[in-house]
Amino acid sequence: MKDTIKPYGPLQAVKRHFFAMRNGIVADTLRRAGSPHRIIFGLNLPQIVETASMNGFDDSLAEALWNNTSTRESMLLAPMVRTLETFGIEDARRWLDIVFPIGSCEAIDVFCHRLLRHRPYAVELAEELAGSDKAIARYTALRLMFNLYAKHTDRAAAVATTVRAIPSSLTDVLAASLVEECELLNTL
Question: How far is it, in rounded angstroms, from Cα 36 to Cα 40?
Fold first, then answer.
């Protein structure tokens, strides 16, 4: 009987890489801190960035990773391997619909910083999210505007003011910080 070696698909190869780099101490710390993900390999952000550079841009891999909501590192890697130019506002809304129920602020932070802030619709999306009845959507609006406030100070302050009107432990401190940063920038 002839042995055949089955090659791994891109998602399986990434998961094997995660497994090889796993850090149990970090994973346990994240679990105790309340990470919403069921599977946590414990990789730090530089390791995930390194994994992204090894894979390059691959939209189908990015989609598969983002849809793998049970795994922390998958959701953090997805925005790093998604092609910027073809990521439209409907794609952004679809990805947000996937992450909101999970409530992973870490995934939202990476998504906003690595992908959304580079898109021409970023400010409009933040303004749209600021008025949401979901605290996680308002959190996303603030995190996105923190990446953009230097160029859009007045609009960032307006987003923060809108978010502050709906008290939430998830957004109160962040909204106040954004208002403060915008005020400071306006005095310079």
Answer: 10
Contacts of 43 (CB under 8 A, 6+ apart): 18, 21, 22, 23, 26, 51, 73
What is the per-residue pLDDT across 81-122, written as a single tens digit (0 to 9) for each? 999 999 999 999 999 999 999 999 999 999 999 999 999 999
Residues 135-169: b if buried by 16+ CB within 10 A, e if exposed:
bbbbbbbbbbbbbbbeebbebbbbbbebbbebeee
- Chain position carrying tokens 């009845």: 133
Is pTM beyond 0.85? Reply is yes
Cβ pair 118, 84 in contact under 8 A: yes
75: nearest Cα among 32, 15, 13: 15
Q: Which of 104, 97, 102, 142 shows the shortest CA–CA distance to 122? A: 142
Burial bucket for residue 170 (CB in 10 Å: 0-12, 13-18, 19+): middle
User: How many whole angstroms separate alpha carbon 33 and alpha carbon 133?
Assistant: 25
